[in-house]
Amino acid sequence: MRLSGKTALITGGNSGIGLATAHTFVQEGARVAITGRNPETLDEAVRALGRDVLALRADIMDPEATGDAIRKAAETFGHLDVVVANAGIAGLTPIGGTTAAQFEQILATNVTGVFLTVQAAAPYLKPGASVILIGSVHGVMGMAGYAAYAASKAGVRAMGRVLASELSPKGVRVNVVIPGATRTPIWSRFGSGPNALEAIEPRMVRAVPTRRISEAEEIARTILFLASDDATNIQAAEIVSMAA
């Protein structure tokens, strides 16, 4: 198993790509801690993943709660080998219809929250540890209406290179996975109900070369590669994980 004996923390591990990554890590032998702000989905995730998974309630927008969760995970496991800074939000911010608060919330969650997550985890990272940030193709696409989200994910790409520079002396790798359109519950925010993706998928796939969207499990396998010892010579990389 590729993560046998390793410990991992996944923010936003109770849904979507984070939950798929937790499943993959557990199957590959890791001890896993997940964070999330919704106690119901955290409980569901534990039932799905198994009782050995440590579930910690923390909102990435609350630095103190996030720091406490990371500290508890590290104290439980003794150290951290892998951190997946996955938690984030999306949202439309079109010109003429966006408040400063709406714009700032996305930036604060997706940029500041990611930085503070890595900062809180850094003291517990062993030499050889892997930090994986989650970007998005929105960071380069220029899709109308997504200025804040695009800016935040472009910021994650830039921040990944800086964090790699800072953590390299500790023997810690930092890389970025850049998903394309992926089948996750996040799309329910852009339509009516959990099947909202079905309505917009035909339009979305026109922008995907292979004309299909990715499954969360496919993104998780890319994250697994960067978390594993197969990627010990990869630092400050950006891997686009898109349906093939």
DSSP helix fraction = 40-55%
* Unreliable residue stretches: none
- Taken from the alpha-carbon principal axes, the silhouette is globular
H-E order: EHEHEHEHEHHEEHEHE
Distance between the termini: 25 Å
Notes on the structure:
- The protein is an alpha/beta fold and 244 residues long.
- It has a single domain, classed as Rossmann fold.
- The protein has helices at 16-27, 39-49, 63-77, 100-121, 138-141, 147-167, 196-204, 216-227, and strands at 7-11, 31-36, 54-57, 80-85, 125-134, 173-179, 182-183, 214-215, 238-241.
- A 7-stranded parallel β-sheet has the order 3-2-1-4-5-6-9, with helices on both faces. Strands 7-8 form a two-stranded parallel ribbon.
- Strand 1, helix 1 (16-27) and strand 2 form a beta-alpha-beta unit.
Summed up:
The chain has 244 residues and is α/β, with parallel strands linked by helices. The protein has helices at 16-27, 39-49, 63-77, 100-121, 138-141, 147-167, 196-204, 216-227; strands at 7-11, 31-36, 54-57, 80-85, 125-134, 173-179, 182-183, 214-215, 238-241.
Secondary-structure blueprint:
Elements: E1 7-11, H1 16-27, E2 31-36, H2 39-49, E3 54-57, H3 63-77, E4 80-85, H4 100-121, E5 125-134, H5 138-141, H6 147-167, E6 173-179, E7 182-183, H7 196-204, E8 214-215, H8 216-227, E9 238-241
Parallel strand pairs: 1-2, 1-4, 2-3, 4-5, 5-6, 6-9, 7-8
Helix pairs in contact: 1-8, 3-4, 4-6
